[in-house]
TrEMBL record:
Domain F-box, residue spans: 60-106
Source taxon at top rank: Eukaryota
Protein's UniProt name: F-box domain-containing protein
Species whose genome carries this gene: Hibiscus sabdariffa (roselle)
InterPro entries documented for this protein: F-box-like_dom_sf, F-box_dom
A Pfam cross-reference name: F-box
Amino acid sequence: MRLLSPWFWKDVSFFPSSSLIKDILGLGLGFFTTTSSKMSLKKMSFTSKVDNFEEVEESAMSVLDLPDLVLECILERLPPAALCSMAGVCSSLRSRCISDHFWAKHMKNKWGRIIGPAAYREWQWHVALKTRKDSSHLKQGKPKGLMRILSIVRPSWWLQSKVDGSNKQCSLPDDSVMAWFLALETGRFWFPAQVYNRENGHVGFMLSCYDAELSYDPRTDTFQARYPPHGRRAETTENNVPWERLRAPPFDTSPHDLHISDCLNELRPGDNIEIQWRRNKEFPYGWWYGVVGHLESCDGNENYCRCHNSDTVVLEFNQYTLGSRWRRTTVHRKEHREEGNEADGFYGGIRKLYNEEISTWKRLWPSEILE
């Protein structure tokens, strides 16, 4: 594929990095121009326009003639769609463009905030299961029952390859970062994460964060969330969940596991915390936002406050109105595990919050105080 072919520049021009890419390619062209022989320069002076065109065509440089460092510099600046477009040019470029080196950066930039160890583990299981099924079909002499996760002929939002007017499919390694990225990007892969204010900010879940399975919708740039069934409650689905309401789980544990608190001894009034809470023993834990308050015997004066020396830690949930049974609770600083009852629910592990996490909860604060 010739470097200056019209379809390549047409595709690349749509991306923010196009000017940078053209500058780099300009340097590459300059490099080869200065090192060309005098004979090739003389050939450019033919009197016949037809002959001149033929000579230019013969001397045109391929993108693969660029030095490896220049070519790598170009590829690592391409956005995902352009990188896929380049991968459709030829087998040599494809082997470069599907490299985990390039796609790991795109994975981190777009998905790093909401993808945790549990999601990666789920992907590994997905790949292992697919590989096993494919092997089984091959042994039986039957065609594969599942399509490859990605072919270089992309979904509709990828640019279409026009090399030789063909649309040949070319499979990716199932365990590549590029395959994982595009499985997420196309919504084919459901992954575990956590959702703030589940069920469209239902009043019963305000300022909480619960586990769910998520699938991305590229048409709306939002997610579909599935909350698992528990007790008598059936599976619940929520659509159009924005990025701002998602996060990776803070710990790589089951939502039914009690978190062992390691911050109780350092908690002081005014500290921001999350605490596990569940309605009953059959329910999974959710993380609820609160702050450390003062004991009733303390007037809140910082000069005389000794609440941090007490074995009792007061937790306040100021999104609820004064007098609400959900407004305030206490836990034992040294012996806290899970405390509560069937009427008020059960309080589990506590984690102390800092900076960005606190800002996220403040941004989700309800417009009205809850009863």
